[in-house]
Design brief:
Blueprint: E1 8-10, E2 13-17, H1 18-24, H2 32-39, E3 50-58, E4 64-73, H3 74-84, H4 87-103, H5 106-137, H6 139-150, E5 155-156, H7 157-166, H8 173-182, H9 199-203, E6 207-215, E7 221-229, H10 231-243, H11 246-249
Antiparallel strand pairs: 1-2, 2-4, 3-4, 5-7, 6-7
Helix pairs in contact: 3-4, 6-10, 7-8
Domain AntA/AntB antirepressor: 17-86
Domain Antirepressor protein C-terminal: 132-243
Organism: Anaerosalibacter massiliensis
Length: 250
């Protein structure tokens, strides 16, 4: 009785190929489509008792072609077997009855329950992995939101150093100034433009320059220039440092 006709197990559902059943029954009506179309009207419901799908098969002349098969339930298979009123039909029906008995035994039900529990645990673990991956992927977006929340205006480079420390980057004002100069964001040559934003940094919108008029005791006025980091610059540098190895950065 074992594997008399191949049965497929999907979750808590048993199905088989209508063509396989037709083959076992010695191909009644010669053509499969004529046989199945005759009996599928006997109260069977499409997508409940049977479902059509396309298979690739080989003709007797060796040519490949596509044909229609049907996935049918065990209950439908039992009725189709009984309707044949042949010895093969009786054997097939008895085979399906024995399969159902085994399928509904306490041991089989427990085994399916354990398998489903294992699948749910595996799915849960996969979801956790995907969630962790998503969190990692969204870090720059999170940092962007945190930076915008923390500051809605331009800040000094020293304040940027504090903001970086709040985001897990151990640096200070002097180290940050040095890094910005060495990496082309601030001018490093000595002179009146020392520590001012480079053209690259200005084009990226990372800095603004604040000019302050200073009146001296002798009456002359001088202009003090201070680089200030824009909101865009704050987000840019936080994300940049987060993506880099701090030991190599600082």
């Amino acid at each position: 009785m074992n594997d008399l006709i191949k049965v497929n197990y999907k979750g808590d559902r048993q199905t088989l190929s209508a063509r396989d059943l037709w083959e076992f029954l010695d191909r009644p009506y010669t053509r499969f489509d004529l046989w199945f179309n005759k009996y599928k009207e006997y109260g069977f419901i499409e997508n409940h008792d049977f479902r059509a799908y396309v298979i690739k098969t080989t003709h007797a002349n060796g040519r490949n072609y596509e044909a229609t098969d049907y996935e049918i339930t065990i209950d439908m298979a039992k009725e189709l077997a009984m309707l044949q009123k042949t010895e093969k039909g009786k054997i097939a029906r008895q085979y399906f009855i024995e399969l159902e008995k085994k399928w509904n035994s306490p041991e089989a039900i427990m085994a399916r329950a354990l398998k489903m529990a294992d699948m749910q645990i595996l799915e849960y673990k996969n979801n956790i992995v995907q969630l962790e991956s998503k969190i990692e992927e969204d870090k720059p977006k999170v940092l962007f939101a945190e930076a915008v929340t923390a500051s809605h205006t331009t800040i000094l480079v020293g304040e940027l150093a504090k903001l970086l420390r709040q985001n897990g980057i151990d640096t200070g004002q002097n180290r940050l100034f040095s890094w910005l100069r060495n990496n082309g964001y601030l001018i490093k040559r000595k002179g009146t433009d020392y520590n001012m934003p480079t053209q690259k940094a200005m084009d990226l919108g990372l800095f603004e320059v604040k000019e302050t008029s200073i009146t001296h005791s002798d009456g002359h006025i001088s202009i003090s220039k201070t680089p200030k980091v824009t909101v865009k610059g704050q987000v840019y540098f936080i994300n940049k440092f987060k993506e880099m190895d701090l030991e190599k950065v600082m």
